[in-house]
Amino acid sequence: MTPFFEKLFDDVILVEGGYADHPSDPGGKTKYGITEETARRNGYTGAMRDLPLEKAKSIYWNEYFIRAGLAKIAELSEPIAAELFDSGVNAGSGRAALWLQQALNVMNQKGYLYKDIKEDRAIGNNTANALKVYLQKRGRDAEKVMLRTLNGLQLAHYFDLCRRGEKFEDFMYGWVRTRVS
């Protein structure tokens, strides 16, 4: 684990808190923001209330940082990697990767700066390379613009969830307060 990841983990624990089992949350029982399904997939067999912090850290490292492809992104931009990590924790790593891919594809000047990439919900070499070229070609404001775009997509996702189902309204204010910056 890297010092950058340690900071991401500390930040996400502050937002996610401890044990929760909110009736409007389709994720069900969670601890430290880890759903029971994710904990089981990562080998945890105990009660969710008892999920150890170190096990949560291991899950975040493996599931939301390494498998999500964020090590590659962090080499290019730690702020963008941090945004994708936070979005992945709350909305799914595949969705966060998709938002990055969509943003890259609409900001490449119709393929002039770099070719469109496949929007496959997985950050691999093509996505990382496109981000690298995007950052180089777009200059000093590129990172800020990408962060705004990713936040906008995240806000639109939350807004859409709430418009489609009232149960998510329980979370909208908190999502905007803690997730969209």
The strand line-up of the biggest sheet is: 1-2-3
Q: Span from first to last CA?
A: 26 Å
Major sheet attributes: 3 strands, antiparallel
Mean pLDDT: 90
Order of helices and strands: HEEEHHHHHHHH
Low-confidence stretches: none
Radius of gyration: 17 Å
Which structural class best describes the helix and strand composition?
A: mainly alpha
Oligomer: single chain
Shape descriptor reads globular
Task: Compute the number of helices.
Answer: 9
* Number of strand segments: 3
Helix content: 55-70%
What share of the residues does DSSP label as strand, in percent?
under 5%
How many discrete domains?
2
Essential attributes:
single chain, mainly alpha, 181 residues, 3 strands, 3% strand, 3-stranded antiparallel β-sheet
Description:
By secondary structure, the chain is mainly alpha-helical. The chain is built from nine helices and three strands. It folds into two domains: 67 residues, no CATH class; 105 residues, no CATH class. A three-stranded antiparallel β-sheet has the order 1-2-3. The two termini are 26 Å apart.
Topology at a glance:
Elements: H1 3-16, E1 19-20, E2 30-31, E3 34-35, H2 36-41, H3 53-66, H4 70-76, H5 78-91, H6 93-106, H7 125-138, H8 142-164, H9 169-178
Antiparallel strand pairs: 1-2, 2-3
Summarize the structure.
This protein has 181 residues and is mainly alpha-helical. The chain has 2 domains: 1-67, no CATH class; 77-181, no CATH class.
